[in-house]
Write a structure and sequence with these properties.
The structure holds two protein chains of two kinds. Chain A is built from 13 helices and 19 strands. By secondary structure, chain A is an alpha/beta fold. The chains are: A alpha/beta, B mainly alpha.
């Protein structure tokens, strides 16, 4: 039970300091609210903890990772590429942070970072707007429930977020991938320019090979420095060139003088006051002292990440909300989605043998969705075997020869000379596909499992279905046909059947909607049931689209903050 | 149930370490890769080399000599400058499964024994002339090829004890050299902070 109740009542409490918690902190403090941010994990100090300039030869295992430690403490986290010898410390300890898999579900990989800044320190930084092809998808085919908003509602908030974040990107004037407020793009390699021209020619401009839009600065921006192309963003960024809470939004919030960040604050549940029908605060366990503490606030923003936010709501049972707070619809925890990926094709391209690139860019290229489009393109782009669509993260690069050296016989000076230089250009298309909302894919509470802080753990039950299966086939076929059109050689398709969760784009467990009976949140990310409660992380999403979702989470958060503060000022919360 | 003051009291610590440090990096720093390198990386391993935890001095010398014959110094440094024994010693102490560790250590000793068979006055592989070293390695390579049949090398830690000695040492040498300061900087032209992105340069330039 709660041991300590802190006396102060905060204007706002934000649960989580990741990409949405950071935005909530910035927007709410800038609008004058005394804001407390609760973060489950420890602080990160860039000067101490970032390691992007620590070369392999200064690491004990030269990048082979602390294998035994990971096998013992991070068997799930270490499946993620970013959880390497440098950045493994940013990921959770799987033994302290257990979860279980529900009957009939596939293995689910829940990749987490409980640190100040959360997964914004580790994200892929790809930043794409969604369009009405996405916001109208549920209404069009009947899966899930209709989004309560359309692109026009979010467009100004994309503008606002992008203007602060700094997105390198190239306008393409494609309705399915709206242009944004871009900094100069990171130029495509000479081979990629040829690929762009070749695809435009072969497919009449319908398959556009564009520089990936990334939250990395190509020029100085709001006190943060331009990228210096060291190339390993996930280990940190001492020049603050890539966007993270720690690099940008939390410092902006702190500059207002109204921000308090409380690290090592593991949220157990939200506290609900039956008399006022409002959330009155948050019950947390101090991660170090294990004290049980209640903090009080006038509004609460839940930004703990999709599965964690659902877990907190489901762990916040009250007499009125016996199935979990804000859950009169029964939809909390349901409709969990991720993106299918690790599927596509690649091949070698002849030419430009005497050319390469200099520097290590923080992005590559992107090929926006071209199937199942809407409007007057609907007929021409319709796929018979699946609904919705996919895009590709892609690029052409030359590998080093030494990496294949173990397969080459020999040793000595000639052998060493033969490993010098670069392999031919290889073009890779890696698909990211939309996942249909399905109420049976869900997060519940495991009655028999608790984490290190005694908090009941999540049980995740999720499987991909026939639509995703059919899409995986098409992703490979379509990639291979582009490679063929470009005259690529040694074309290989791949499908590693990525497990749910592994794209780390999980979303949907507290969906927005138009009807309180079938959705958890209204069009402002506000709980239908509890008006001073907002959920603005991936949980709010009503469908998954195929674009990377973080930019949309940020725009939704900024929009929800504006709405919440306006309502507060009118004394309506 | 105690009631106390808000949290701020105990958290004077710089939670957002980044904020105060923004102006800390001079503009020109990133124009100079060397300076940035010196300034930025935090895990300087300068000082005395750590004592060996698993390898004997003799085994370390043998390993160093084999590595240098596999990737010798040419117009760039060889694997003898890549601190391969120190790396392998760390892998033996904390990374390799027991079976792979036992396999590697036993085979290293066996390899030295074979060197002594060729040249009884030699203490081990290091005392052979380079040409004799290369002959012994060529034999080991042939044996590895025969032992493997058509199979390729497996990097899976749990399969490393099944890999022929020559292949195992060759893999450790390749990995160790191309992740060493000598190998990355001289042979691969690696710069920690390139400072710019150029989408099209001549191969020579890179």
């Amino acid at each position: 039970m709660v041991q300590i109740i802190e006396r102060k009542t905060w204007d706002a409490i934000v649960v989580g300091s990741g990409i949405t918690g950071g935005w909530a902190a910035k927007e709410l403090t800038e609008k004058g609210l005394e804001t407390l941010v609760l973060e489950a994990g420890p602080p990160v100090v860039p000067e101490r903890d970032y390691s992007e300039h620590t070369p392999p030869w200064q690491m004990p295992y030269r990048g082979l990772r602390d294998r035994k430690h990971q096998a013992e403490r991070q068997p799930v986290q270490s499946r993620a590429a970013a959880c390497d010898e440098w950045s493994g410390k940013f990921f959770v300890d799987d033994i302290d942070n257990p979860y279980s898999i529900g009957d009939g579900g596939q293995e689910f990989l829940w990749i987490r970072a409980r640190i100040v800044g959360g997964r914004s320190l580790l994200w892929g930084r790809q930043s794409y707007r969604w369009s009405d092809l996405d916001f109208g998808a549920n209404a069009r085919d009947g899966y899930g429930t209709d989004w309560p908003i359309r692109y026009r509602d979010l467009a100004p908030w994309y503008d606002r977020v992008e203007s602060f974040v700094g997105i390198a990107g190239q306008p393409e004037n494609m309705p399915q991938l709206p242009d944004g407020k871009f900094l100069p793009p990171i130029a495509q390699s000479c081979m990629e320019e040829k690929v762009r021209e070749g695809l435009d020619r072969a497919f009449g401009g319908t398959r556009r090979f564009t520089p990936a839009r990334v939250a990395v600065l190509t020029k100085h921006h709001l006190g943060r420095r331009a990228c210096h192309y060291c190339g390993i963003c996930r280990r940190g960024c001492i020049s603050r060139s890539y966007f993270s809470s720690l690099n940008a939004t939390l410092p902006a919030a702190e500059a207002t003088g109204r921000l308090t960040v409380r690290p090592n604050s593991v949220v157990r549940n939200l506290v609900y006051d039956e008399r006022t029908d409002r959330v009155s605060g948050v019950h947390l366990i101090d991660g170090e002292s294990m004290e049980s503490i209640e903090v009080r606030g006038r509004i609460v923003f839940l930004c703990a990440s999709t599965i964690e936010s659902a877990r907190i709501l489901l762990n916040s049972k009250t007499p009125r909300f016996a199935e979990g707070l804000a859950n009169s619809s029964g939809q909390v925890g349901r409709n969990l989605m991720d993106h299918i990926f690790q599927v596509g094709a690649n091949g070698n391209l002849d030419g430009l043998e005497d050319k390469t690139t200099f520097g290590r860019r923080p992005n590559s290229c992107y090929l926006p969705r071209f199937v199942n489009l809407d409007g007057d393109r609907a007929e021409a782009t319709r796929e018979k075997s699946f609904l919705r669509g996919f895009g590709y993260q892609c690029g052409a690069r030359r590998g080093t020869l030494w990496q294949g050296g173990i397969g080459q016989p020999g040793f000595g000076a000639d052998y060493k000379a033969s490993l010098r230089g670069l392999a031919p250009w290889r073009l890779n298309f890696s698909g990211f596909g939309e996942n249909l909302p399905n109420p049976d894919n869900r997060v519940t509470i495991d009655p028999d499992l608790e984490d290190r802080w005694g908090i009941p753990a999540a049980r995740i039950t999720m499987s991909y279905g026939e639509n995703e299966e059919a899409m995986r086939e098409s992703i490979q076929t379509r990639a291979a046909e582009m490679l063929e059109a470009l005259g690529a050689k040694n074309i290989r398709t791949f499908n590693r059947n990525s497990l749910p969760g592994f794209a780390i784009h999980e979303m949907g467990t507290a969906r927005m909607g138009r009807n309180p009976a079938t959705s958890v949140l209204n069009g402002w990310c506000q709980s239908w049931d509890v008006p001073n409660l907002f959920v603005t992380d991936g949980a709010a999403m009503a469908s998954s689209a195929c674009q990377n979702p973080s930019l949309t989470y940020m725009a939704l958060t900024a929009r929800a903050c504006d709405y919440a503060v306006r309502r507060m000022r009118r004394l309506e919360l | 149930m105690a009631s106390i003051d808000p949290i701020g009291r105990r958290r004077a610590l710089q939670v957002i370490g980044g904020a105060a440090a923004l102006p800390l990096l001079p503009e020109e720093l990133f124009g100079n890769a060397h300076l940035a390198h010196v300034h930025l990386h935090r895990q300087e391993t300068a000082g005395e080399p750590a004592p060996l935890a698993v390898l004997s001095e003799g085994q370390a010398r043998t390993l160093d000599a084999i590595a240098e014959r596999i990737l010798p110094a040419t117009d760039t440094p060889g694997a003898g400058d890549a601190e391969i024994p120190a790396l392998v010693d760390r892998l033996l102490a904390g990374w390799l499964p027991d079976a792979a560790r036992d396999h590697l250590l036993a085979e290293l000793d066996r390899f030295d024994a074979r060197a002594r068979e060729r040249q009884p006055e030699a203490a081990g592989f290091v005392d052979l002339a380079e040409s004799a070293q290369d002959r012994l390695l060529a034999e080991a390579q042939d044996e590895a090829l025969a032992e493997r049949g058509g199979r390729g090398f497996s990097r899976n830690p749990n399969r490393l004890h099944e890999q022929p000695f020559f292949d195992l040492v060759k893999w450790l040498t390749l990995f160790g050299y191309y992740t060493s300061e000598a190998g990355m900087k001289s042979e691969l032209g690696y710069r920690i902070v390139p400072g710019r992105w150029d989408p099209c340069v001549d191969l020579e330039e890179a």
